[in-house]
Amino acid sequence: MLKIGVLGAGHLGKIHLKLANQSEKLDLVGFYDPNQENAEKVEKDFGYKAFATIEELIEAVDVVDIVTPTLSHYECAKKAIIAGKHIFLEKPIANSVQEAEEIIALAKKHNVKGQVGHVERFNPAFKAVKNIIQNPMFIETHRLAEFNPRGTDVPVVLDLMIHDIDAILSVVQSEVKEIHSSGVAVISESPDIANARLVFENGCVANITSSRISLKNMRKSRFFQKDAYISVDYLEKNCEVVKMKDAPEVPGEWDMVLQNAEGVKKQIYFDNPDVKQNNAILDELESFADAINNDTIPLVTLEDGTNALRIAYQIIDSFNK
C-alpha cells in the first residue's frame, strides 16, 4: 500500500485522516499541523502520529495529502514535489493561477503525479450521469449554503462556486469565450453571493449561482441538451434524466407525447440511472492511489484544478466591469 501523510488537521484534515486510515489502498503514516496544541489533541484523541516538522512527514511517505489553508498550498506542494512525493491538493489548487502553473511545472520536472480535491466529480449522483451528459447547450447550477464564518476570508467564488466551475468544465468540451458576473458582499469583506454567466465557444451557456448566506442548503445542477434534460442533486445524491425520442405512430395508453408547432411528435420517457452510494472523499483518495499504482492520469488533474481556478478568478475580475 502507498504510504500517505496529511498536512493540516483542521476540520477537513480530520476527515481526510479518518478516511485515509480506513482505506484499503492507503497506509496512513501520520500528519503534520503547525498548531502544536491542535496536533497534540488530534494525536491524543484519534491516535494518529503527529510529526514534529513538515519535512519529517514528507520524508516518511509516498503521497502527501495537502489539506492546509489555500495560502500555503504552493509552498507545501513545492516541498513535497521536490522530495519526489506525489501530491493530493484540496481545492482550490493554489492561491493564484501563477502558483498553480508552477506546481504543474514542478510536478512534470520531478515526474510525480498530482490530483486536486474537486470532490463533486466523485459525487455518486454526478458519476451516475457523467456519461449521459453529451454536448449540453445550457447549464444552470445553484449552490447555496447557510452562513458559516469558516471560509469567509475568500470570495464565495473560490469557496463554493469553484465546485460547479470544475464540474461544468469537465462536461463542456469547449473553451470559455465570455464571462459576465456580479457579486455582493453582505456579511463578509468579500462577496457572499455571486452569479456568473459563462458563454462557451461552441454556444453552450452556463448560469452559475452561489451563496453562503442562504436560509437553506442546496447543491443542484441542471443540464439541457438535444432531446434530454438531466438534473443532479449533489446534496441529496440523486439524479433525474428525462429524454425524448420520436413518438410511435400509435402511442400506448400511458405514453407521454408532445407535439410542437411544426407538428413533430416526441415521446417523453425517464431514464434514471442507478446511483451507487459512496464516500466521495474516500473515493477520490483511492482513485489517486489507483492512478499512481497503475501509472494512469488522475481523474482530476493539476491542469483541471488550474483551469477551474483561472475561470474563478476571471469571474471575480469581472465583478467590477
From TrEMBL:
Domain annotation Gfo/Idh/MocA-like oxidoreductase N-terminal: ranges: 2-118
Gene3D superfamilies noted in UniProt: Dihydrodipicolinate Reductase, domain 2, NAD(P)-binding Rossmann-like Domain
Pfam families recorded: GFO_IDH_MocA (PF01408), GFO_IDH_MocA_C3 (PF22725)
SUPFAM superfamilies per record: Glyceraldehyde-3-phosphate dehydrogenase-like, C-terminal domain, NAD(P)-binding Rossmann-fold domains
Membrane-spanning ranges: none
Stretches of the chain forming a coiled coil according to its record: none
Domain GFO/IDH/MocA-like oxidoreductase: 156-216
Listed name of the protein: Dehydrogenase
